[in-house]
Amino acid sequence: MTEEPAELEPGGTNAIGRMLGLLGDEWTLLILQHSLWGVRRYGQFMAAIPISNAVLTSRLRLLTDEGLLERRVYQPNPPRAEYRPTARSRSLWPVLLAIWEWERQWVPDHAEGLPAMRHAVCGSDFAPVLGCRACGEVLHPRDAQADWGPSGSWPRSVPAAVTRRRSDTEGGSGQSGLFPDTMAIFGNRWSSALIGAAFRGLTRFSEFETSLGAPPTLIADRLKVFGAIGVLEPIDNLGRSDWMQYRLTAKGRAFFPVVALALQWAEQWFHAPEGAALEVTHGVCGNPLTAILMCDQCGQPLSGGDVLVVSADQHDLLMSGTEHIEAAEVEDVLMAHPGVREVAVIGAPDERRGETPVAFVVVEHGSGVSVDDLFAFAGEHLEPDRRPTAIEVIDSLPRTATGKVLKRDLRAPYWAGHDRSNA
Fold first, then answer.
1. Distance of CA 39 to CAs 183, 224, 314, Å?
2. Mean pLDDT for the stretch of residues 385-397
3. Where are the alpha helices (DSSP H) in 382-416?
4. DSSP 164
């Protein structure tokens, strides 16, 4: 599993460009998003994302080569593999958390579909706030003072063409995953570069064109998109078209946590021999900036293990007696069975323990796996109190249009007539 940063070529694309080349592609970001949600196998990605076989194959190969996924063969004949997140991709959780919050606040028509976030430390539903690790103060865009580092320049920060831009023939409807407006900004490598330039103070068409080295038609298209979603606002300067300026709106400035955390991730995992691409100082305390996310309820720094993603359609923490059981733990065990394709675990009512795990399993076609086989496998790998008390083999899992499993539909028959029937 990849733990060490990648060493870049002297004089070549720097950490910023490498990050934009990887994450500035909507298919890549969607695959990583679902990977961190627990999707592991090729068929699961196909079921969860509106993507063609050719594109999924190429992106999985790319992410494996770049150390963001690890390919593990779990069945030699016929050969079958799963793709597990590495330390490099798991450390992207702050970026995704920042994206969730930005969409929730600035895309009202879309906010209802986003999962709620609960802080396990204080027990509150929360909103993540960007802060400075050194002083603990909330970080605002105006307080971040950025200068080019030894490997920093506009030419070296332009993303390499690691992936090509998605075309309509590759599938999908243009509404990507849970983050439609984010994809308009971050799901295209030139969009990402342009928003970064805007945060560095560029405002004019000619400045974007010269600095980024992009074709004028592409710059014009991106500026039009950013204006349509309310991220940049065109300002007529003295009636002269050549003096037209494009300034960040409040919505655009609110995207700063995503940009800051993505840049920080880039410097963590891509090292240029000359040094950092960007040197950022927190103007309030004067220290080199290390951005963190904090809980707006208790003020404590967040860690990935303390953030619970919950929604009305997905309860992943079960209370069984005095034990807390994570549905993902049971799902991961059953997914390790070579004859299992997909798993979803819910909590069903139990008179003695309050809740008990129930597993819904989709088996590989022709595998011949039975419910008894699955019970035996769970018994070998789980403690008695964590084993599912019921297992149902079904043809497919119910899903939303964005690929999320509808656990509410799975729970409904078990909770009918109980107080928590709609939980």
1. 20, 35, 15
2. 90
3. 407-415
4. P
H or E stretch at 362: strand 354-363
C-beta separation of 113 from 119 below 8 A: no
Which of 294, 349, 274, 275 has its CA nearest to residue 319?
349
Q: Is the pLDDT of residue 274 over 50?
A: yes
Which is the CATH superfamily of the domain at 312-415? ANL, C-terminal domain (3.30.300.30)
Q: Are 68 and 88 in contact (CB under 8 A)?
A: yes
Tell me the pLDDT band of 174, cut-offs 50, 70 and 90.
very low
Sequence spans of domains, the chain: 6-253, 312-415
pLDDT of residue 240: 62
Facing residues of 83 across strands? 71
CATH topology for 6-253 is Arc Repressor Mutant, subunit A (1.10.10)
Of residues 88, 92, 16, the one with CA closest to residue 278? 16
Per DSSP, the three-state class of 321 is coil
Among residues 276, 292, 264, 13, the alpha carbon closest in space to that of 160 is found at: 13
Q: Does residue 418 register a pLDDT over 70?
A: no
pTM over 0.85: no
- What pLDDT is attached to residue 54? 93
C-alpha dihedral, 340 to 342 to 343 to 344, nearest 10°: -170
Q: Is the pLDDT of residue 116 over 80?
A: no
Contact of 378 with 334, CB cutoff 8 Å? yes
Report the mean per-residue pLDDT for the chain: 83
Note whether 139 and 130 are within 8 A (CB): yes
Q: Which helix (H) or strand (E) holds 182?
A: helix 180-186
What pLDDT was estimated at residue 148?
Answer: 93
